[in-house]
User: Fold this.
Amino acid sequence: MEIPFEKTLAEIIRWRVDKNPDAIAHKFGDRETTYKEFDSYANQIAQGLIALDCGPDTRVAFLAKNSDYFFEFLYGTLKSRTVAVGVNWRLAPPEVAFIVNDSKSEVLFVGAEFFGLIEQIKDELPYVKKIIAVGDNHEEWENFIDWRDAQNDEDPLIETQPDDDVIQLYTSGTTGHPKGVQLTNNNFSSANIMAKHGYYRQSFQELSVNLVCMPVFHVAGTNMGLAGYVFGCKSIIIPEVDPTLILELIEKEKIENTIFVPAVILFLIQHPEVKNVDWSSLKTVVYGASPIAQDTLEKAIEIMDCEFWQVYGLTETNGAVTFLEPEDHDPSKNKLRSCGKPGYGAEIRIEDENGKDLAVGEVGEIVIKSDNNMKGYWNNPKATEESVVDGWFYSGDAGYFDEDGFLYIHDRVKDMIVSGGENIYPAEVENALMSHDDILDAAVVGIPDEKWGETVKGFVVLKEGVELKEEEIISYARTQIAGFKCPKSINYVSELPRNPSGKILRKDLRAPYWEGKDRNVS
Assistant:
């Protein structure tokens, strides 16, 4: 199948529209859109952004659940040479305000479910000059469809460059604030080429039916949608993960390809209707973002009866840089705990704390060189310099290679917690806890959880004479940060373990909960 991988994303959609104008690009609910219609809508959004004086490199933000409108918005930004900023809709108001302000987004598209959230913080968004209501009417803000349809549908034909930022997604940072990951046309071209040599080579074909269910503020959701347009597929888009709906659509829409995080796979195989589903259309399940229990994986392979590809990567690497192929999912090969081998064009090393390469079987930091690697962290040169050295990205994950060249994830160098595929950085949660007047000190760690892989456990030091119930602390945290980041349980301690320089010894806090495990991530 001919794919113009050397082109920018804006050029690819033009090429695809010329080739398959009347094919269905995507379906959301009962609404189907052809490639020709999709292109026209993207042109209108591009023209609308240009009319709002959003020039090249201007950031525009989208806060809404998955829909076909997001991808129209995304291609509108590509054609106007602006940059799409995906905002995690699970975040609390202060977190949303931080991202919108950090990105200096000038236009904010808001889904109906989040009108109330934005109303709370709209006076704290100095860069936003227009808010557009998506999915419903708002008395103060222009409706998305009305605004879009009032624009000229002529392609602006603005020349875009391979090194242009096209999407900015936010990931947790060592300071406790999210960091904006700058992903370029080059990054997506590289990712498509790498995946073409992996799972795309046999599964993603013109007119294939893909399911987009992972959130589009994550690289998994965005990439699944983009892959569909690049390869001329039909994408079935749903607002969020809904196991019952996913099972219905696999049978009804004859889904062929999808991406899940392990928690979703677990939800599906535990669903009471899972054995009654016709899985015969399903060809490929790509999974990653957190480790998966071997028995869960083996059950899923048996039930779904299709090819499974495990991938490892980060937002900073625009998703997958390793692939565990279907043939390596044979339990007799003993590779199911591996995340595979480096993908096409990717180099991976294991380093110790002094930058020395480690031998087979030795655990160290996973360091990655690939054209997938981000341009950098937006407006944060210090963090970029710390994470990217001579083209090598320091992942913060600890792992090792076996004698066959398979990579294994062992731990997280930077204390990151991954719960249900969501990255949670302890400093952010700890800052939220310590903003409570009665909490003197706090630390959080990830502990094993059968459903989510890990959940957040908090350790707090209270002011003398103060009593706070566990549910009071957790409820307070929910006013400061997203619910998925909040501790699910609290331990009260008189003091936190620290090293001589004052750094919290989170490994000491984690150790009792991971005792007996063969790796320190779930």
